[in-house]
């Protein structure tokens, strides 16, 4: 379950004759084999020929075609900090910084040779501390096979601390660059129109630079104007109400994600630079937000729009492409949506996924209507071993109609099966009907898994998300509880064998579940969860303005709501918890500080309650495969101990010692 996918970022060449993808090492590979680049010749789709290029010592994060013969590699590496004589660089704690993580783009031919780096870091223009991200491509310039557009920090004067983000035309054969547009020190990103002219850019604003101003200009104009502002932080999605989505066919327009004032949902719109206005929607659902869009990686044109009600939905704006995909959907069935990823040379690259299919790629020939399977993302996972998922609808105590996803074990550990409740993080996130590695892992262990979509979740419009504002530990928690009780009342799980597990906001929900409904659960697991709301707000206020303002709006204001915040802080109600608690947290977490779990551990110990705290070396998102595997090992071991024991009735007495 935790092994990396075998096929990552597959992309057709512009002429559709070749395919590239990153291949991560798999179980059974020879020792020492690392990440490799696969180049597949599709001249005979029935028998594609694959060549694997080793990438020794290279941490390649992304790949792309520069043209039909050149491949671009986005790489990261550790570099020494050199700020000049007499200049000392320190972090926010005042500790000296001697090394930083940098990124750069390399260019190679299809045989892996003739390599060159884009941008020369020895060039005085780019020799600045702020050029840590030299791996972003603004425009692949389909009409110019020798160049791409990339942003880079250009040093201003002698100071290494002053650098503006300018836009450059870069030669992918030589690495040489020429500036085509001037930015500012606050510039974050550039966007171009159908003529490859820069017409939009993002600028940082606010304390900590976490607010973003969107600047735009009509074609041919020199003056930039602010057209939108949004906050970018780890917690909220509801606030990102204006985002670049894709390139428009019109040079005076862009395709953007924006919220409709009429429906309150996020849709895909045409945006006019001349009129500074949203035009007719390309896609807008009355009840559900757009989750994301897929753009062609080379032309940067819109391929599809993804959203979900109870099931994932895909809207394809191009009628001809939609007709082809509709025929494929009939072959694979309703539980396996077909997502077009790219179209080139009369071929369509599609991804098929579902609850029992983590993801597989197929090549469809539009002329012959033939389909060739290119490979599965995770071939080690047999669909026969994966559990089915179904939608469970239930009513909240106030009458609201809600639902969640139930993953049913193929081989229940007991009859009726024990239940693991898995509230999602965010909280402005959502689960989707499909493959979920944690839910599938728990189902493989014999557990019934429930993922409730409580109010406050993203994807169901503004009103549904804002219904959770001020309701951490309140209505949002009750929505989880009501879903669990509806499952138990239906006889679908053993009421004496229920645990709640969550990460981030889900970790908070697990702890509050242990506080508010200790008789409902046998145990609780909090991964990187918030435990003390006032302390979290204080930490965020000192760190980041926009995130703090968001938390005040969605959780509560310490100046006006302190009593409520304290009553909804698990660390301040530890004596009410009567079940074993497992705490997991990364030392490098910069979203929810590890001190939150440390406070929870101390409070439970002071109250004489059973608690186990296992810190790890990771961050908030568990992106390190080794850390992720270790965390899941501890979670499943803890659940087995408390749900599969011979005696599962009753609760632990206060004062029980924490397990080793």
Automatic annotation (TrEMBL):
Any one GO MF annotation of this record: serine-type endopeptidase activity
All copies of domain Peptidase S9 prolyl oligopeptidase catalytic, residue ranges: 435-643
SUPFAM superfamilies in UniProt: alpha/beta-Hydrolases, DPP6 N-terminal domain-like
UniProt keyword terms in alphabetical order: Hydrolase
A GO biological process held by the record: proteolysis
Keyword set includes Hydrolase: yes
InterPro entries with a match to the protein in the record: AB_hydrolase_fold, Peptidase_S9_cat
Cited PANTHER family: DIPEPTIDYL PEPTIDASE FAMILY MEMBER 6 (PTHR42776:SF27), SERINE PEPTIDASE S9 FAMILY MEMBER (PTHR42776)
Protein name: Peptidase S9 prolyl oligopeptidase catalytic domain-containing protein
Organism, as annotated: Marinicauda salina
């Amino acid at each position: 379950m935790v092994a990396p996918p075998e096929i990552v970022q597959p992309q057709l060449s512009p002429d559709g004759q070749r395919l590239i993808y990153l291949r991560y090492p798999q179980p059974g590979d020879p020792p020492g084999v690392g990440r490799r680049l696969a180049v597949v010749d599709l001249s005979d789709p029935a028998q594609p020929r694959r060549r694997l290029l080793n990438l020794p010592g290279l941490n390649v994060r992304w790949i792309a075609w520069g043209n039909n013969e050149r491949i671009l590699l986005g790489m990261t590496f550790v570099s020494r900090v050199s700020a000049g004589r007499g200049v000392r660089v320190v972090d926010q704690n005042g500790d000296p910084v001697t090394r930083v993580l940098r990124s750069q783009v390399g260019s190679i031919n299809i045989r892996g040779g003739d390599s060159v780096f884009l941008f020369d870091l020895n060039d005085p223009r780019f020799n600045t501390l702020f050029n840590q991200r030299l791996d972003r491509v603004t425009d692949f310039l389909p009409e110019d096979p020798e160049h791409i557009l990339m942003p880079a920090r250009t040093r201003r004067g002698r100071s290494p601390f002053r650098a503006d983000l300018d836009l450059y035309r870069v030669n992918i054969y030589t690495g040489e660059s020429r500036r085509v547009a001037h930015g500012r020190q606050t510039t974050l990103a550039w966007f171009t129109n159908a003529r490859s002219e820069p017409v939009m850019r993002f600028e940082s604003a606010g304390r900590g630079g976490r607010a973003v101003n969107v600047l735009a200009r009509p074609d041919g104009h020199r003056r930039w104007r602010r057209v939108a502002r949004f906050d970018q932080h780890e917690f909220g999605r509801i606030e990102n109400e204006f985002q670049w989505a894709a390139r428009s066919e019109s040079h005076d327009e862009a395709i953007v994600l924006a919220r409709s004032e009429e429906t309150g949902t996020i849709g895909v719109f045409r945006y006019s630079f001349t009129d500074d206005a949203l035009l007719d929607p390309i896609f807008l659902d009355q009840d559900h937000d757009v989750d994301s869009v897929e753009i062609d990686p080379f032309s940067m044109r819109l391929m599809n729009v993804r959203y979900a009600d109870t099931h994932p939905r895909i809207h394809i704006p191009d009628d001809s492409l939609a007709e082809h995909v509709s025929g494929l959907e009939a072959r694979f069935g309703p539980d396996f949506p077909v997502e077009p990823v790219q179209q080139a040379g009369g071929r369509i690259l599609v991804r098929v996924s579902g609850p029992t299919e983590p993801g597989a790629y197929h090549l469809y020939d539009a002329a012959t209507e033939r389909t060739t399977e290119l490979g599965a993302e995770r071939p080690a996972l047999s669909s026969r071993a994966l559990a089915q998922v179904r939608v469970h609808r239930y009513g909240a105590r106030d009458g609201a109609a809600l639902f969640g996803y139930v993953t049913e074990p193929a081989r229940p550990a007991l009859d009726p099966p024990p239940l693991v409740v898995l509230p999602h993080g965010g909280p402005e996130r959502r689960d989707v009907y499909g493959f979920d590695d944690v839910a599938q892992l728990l189902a493989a262990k014999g557990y019934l898994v429930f993922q409730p979509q409580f109010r406050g979740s993203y994807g169901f419009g503004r009103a549904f998300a804002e219904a959770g504002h001020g309701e951490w530990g309140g209505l949002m928690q009750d929505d989880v509880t009501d879903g669990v009780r509806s499952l138990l009342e239906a006889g679908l799980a053993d009421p004496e064998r229920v645990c709640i597990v969550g990460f981030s906001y889900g970790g908070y929900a697990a702890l509050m579940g242990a506080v508010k409904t200790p008789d409902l659960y046998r145990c609780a697991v909090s991964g990187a969860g918030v435990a003390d709301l006032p302390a979290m707000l204080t930490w965020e206020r000192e760190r980041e303005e926009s995130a703090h303002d968001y938390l005040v709006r969605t959780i509560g204001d310490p100046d006006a709501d302190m009593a409520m915040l304290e009553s909804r802080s698990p660390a301040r109600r530890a004596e009410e918890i009567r079940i074993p608690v497992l705490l997991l947290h990364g030392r490098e977490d910069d979203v929810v500080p590890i001190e939150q779990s440390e406070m929870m551990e101390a409070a439970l110990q002071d109250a004489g309650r059973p608690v186990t705290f296992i810190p790890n070396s990771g961050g908030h998102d568990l992106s390190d495969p080794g850390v992720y595997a270790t965390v899941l090992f501890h979670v499943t071991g803890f659940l087995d101990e408390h749900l599969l024991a011979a005696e599962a009735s009753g609760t632990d007495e206060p004062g029980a010692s924490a397990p080793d």
